[in-house]
Structure formats: structure tokens, C-alpha cells
Write a structure and sequence with these properties.
heterodimer; A: alpha/beta; Beta Polymerase, domain 2; 5-stranded mixed β-sheet; 3 helices; about 25% strand; globular; B: alpha/beta; two-stranded parallel sheet; 7 helices
Chain lengths: ~160, ~180
């Protein structure tokens, strides 16, 4: 499906909870409200016309002014189309339901986003650290403005 | 041949009755310096350069250096590559598992002081000397095999300056060398 077809079909089903971003990229960029995030993911995976069976990236973004964002990129082996899904999360208490029950790949991606951004994934089956040490207690290093014990920031030119 | 020619000259230069002690130093140091077995251990891209140095084109065997796949049998550890905080603990354990006397060469910018990861990095240790003592530092990103071999020659020179009494007492070892 082209990105326009994906956008129209999703807009029909999810209405005002879903926002289509206008970009010049080849993939559809979609914002979804956190309340219907899991439902949309389930739909994208299981609906035969979408068939997004391959989650190849899940990451966090920190906008220190007002929000966190979760960015999911997936594609379909069968239908050969891609899509980017974004969710806006709360600034102080970023929290979202896990999608590791839909895509197994999400398990490790979510562990990574959890330890580096402090995003809480409700219902995650294995919420341990993935890359950081088990006894890491210096906060969430990929948040803007983070400093740690021997962290040295680049001096101003 | 070179070694045989050096020995009598060296003894003749020693005045008085200290021949046995100094000779033991010489014999031990010469044999240690000529067979530094290094641990089969690499952390990042510098390890590729270390492998190239160990292979036939540059040929570490000329120094009597071959790799051992066990810290228990190694004399020398190349810290070849980026040391993350997570890995630093493992490197420290490996260093402790090596038998004394043991030597460490910090290879490349990352192992010397963090290198390209010095600024704005949460995960990389800023120099392996914060965790284990280092004998020779080799800068470069990565150092060429020639630099690595020069580092080993510097380490051999350092080993040849050592005395048995250094090990018997708690006297600090000779200073660090920067190639």
C-alpha cells in the first residue's frame, strides 16, 4: 500500500485519536494517542491488508520542553510497505503499555528505551536492564541534560 | 648470538662481588622480556590491528610473543579498544587472574583516556588506568602495528631495568612510558 492509502485506512478506523504527519518521506508518519496505542499495534500486526509483521526499530526521544516520544518503525515482509508510528508521552511520568506481546522484537527494544530514557512499559515480561550494568544507579543517560559521576560535557567553542 | 655476546661484557662491568645477584637480574629480565606471552583478548577495533601485528606480516613471534588463551598463562595484557564501564569490571577480573609479574599496555586513544568518547559519553571509561595499572601507553586511533611493536620494545626496556629486589619489597615500579 502507498502511504496515502495507509493514512486513509487508519484515519477511517481511529478518527481523531490518530494524526497523520505531512512529510516528504516515502513512509507514512502517524501519531496515535496513548489510549489506543496497543489496539492500533494489534490491528497493524493482524489486519491482512497491513500485515506489519516486522518491528525493526523502537526508540525514545526526549523533548525536554514538554514530552517524551516513542517511535516505532515497522514493515511488512509480504506487502513490502513501511510505516512510522509515534506516541507522545507525559513529560514527568512517561508510561505506556508494552507491545512485546505483539512483536517479540519489542521486548529488548523496550528494555533499552526503559533504561536509557526512563520510560515505563506497563506489563513488560522482563523489565531488567539490557545494555547498562545491573547495578547502574545514575539515572537515565539519554535524557537531555543528564550528567553522571565522570561525565564530561563538550566545552563551548 | 647477540645475547651471548652481551653477557660477559655485562658481568665485567660489575665491580666487586655482586656478580651473582646482578646476573640473576639479567637472566630473569632477559628471559621475561624475550617471551612476553600476551592474552588473547581484544575489546574493539584496536584488536584488529593487534591481530594484524600478531599475524605473519608483522610477526610478533620475533619478540618471542605469542598469545595465550588464558589469563593464568599470560604475562602481558593489551587493552585493545574502548573500555566501557560494564567491561571495565571484567577487565579488572582478568587482570587479577594473571600471575605476577604482569604487564599492561594501553593500546589506542580509548584505552589511554577515553579517546573519541571523552566528551558527552555515559558509557565509556576515561582511561583503563583508572582501573588497573598501565605500563606503556600507545596513542593512535588505532595505532599502527609499528607503534604497537615500538610499545612492546619500550616495555622490554622497562622489564630489563627491573631488579629482583623490586619484587621483594614494596618499592614502586619504574615510571610509566609513553610511546
Amino acid at each position: 500500500m502507498t502511504k496515502e492509502e495507509i493514512a486513509i485506512k487508519l484515519k477511517d478506523k481511529f478518527g481523531s485519536e490518530l494524526e497523520i504527519l505531512e512529510t516528504n518521506q516515502p513512509e507514512a508518519y502517524v501519531y496515535i494517542s496513548p489510549a489506543r496505542y496497543h489496539e492500533l499495534c494489534q490491528f497493524l500486526k493482524e489486519a491482512p491488508e497491513f500485515d506489519f509483521d516486522y518491528l525493526f526499530q523502537l526508540g525514545g526521544v526526549h523533548y525536554p520542553e514538554d514530552r517524551f516520544e516513542l517511535v516505532l518503525c515497522f514493515s511488512s515482509h509480504e506487502r513490502r510497505h513501511n510505516m512510522i508510528l509515534k506516541v507522545k508521552l507525559d513529560k514527568d511520568n512517561p508510561q505506556i503499555v508494552t507491545t512485546s506481546d505483539i512483536w517479540m522484537a519489542a521486548n529488548w527494544y523496550e528494555r533499552e528505551a526503559a533504561e536509557l530514557f526512563g520510560i515505563k512499559f506497563v506489563g513488560h515480561p522482563d523489565p531488567r536492564h539490557l545494555l547498562l550494568d545491573d547495578d547502574w544507579d545514575s539515572g537515565y543517560p539519554l535524557r537531555k541534560g543528564w550528567t553522571g559521576p565522570d561525565f564530561i560535557s563538550m566545552p563551548e567553542k | 648470538m647477540g645475547v651471548i655476546e652481551k653477557v660477559p661484557a655485562y658481568i665485567e662491568r660489575i665491580p666487586g662481588g655482586g656478580i651473582v645477584t646482578t646476573s640473576m637480574d639479567w637472566v630473569l629480565n632477559e628471559s621475561r622480556a624475550s617471551s612476553m606471552w600476551y592474552m588473547l583478548f581484544g575489546l574493539a577495533c584496536c584488536a584488529i590491528e593487534m591481530m594484524a601485528t600478531g599475524a605473519s606480516r608483522y610477526d610478533f613471534d620475533r619478540f618471542g610473543m605469542i598469545f595465550r588463551a588464558s589469563p593464568r598463562q599470560s604475562d602481558l595484557m593489551f587493552v585493545a579498544g574502548t573500555v566501557t564501564h560494564k567491561m571495565a569490571k571484567r577487565v579488572k577480573v582478568l587482570h587479577e587472574q594473571m600471575a605476577e609479574p604482569r604487564y599492561v599496555i594501553a593500546m589506542g586513544g580509548c584505552a589511554c583516556n577515553g579517546g573519541p568518547f571523552y566528551y558527552d559519553c555515559y558509557s565509556v571509561l576515561k582511561g583503563i588506568d583508572k582501573v588497573i595499572p598501565v605500563d606503556v601507553y600507545i596513542p593512535g586511533c588505532p595505532p599502527r602495528p609499528e607503534s604497537l611493536m615500538q610499545g612492546c620494545i619500550k616495555l622490554q626496556e622497562k622489564i630489563k631495568r627491573e631488579k629482583l629486589s623490586d619484587w621483594a619489597s614494596d618499592r614502586p615500579m619504574p615510571d610509566r612510558t609513553i610511546v
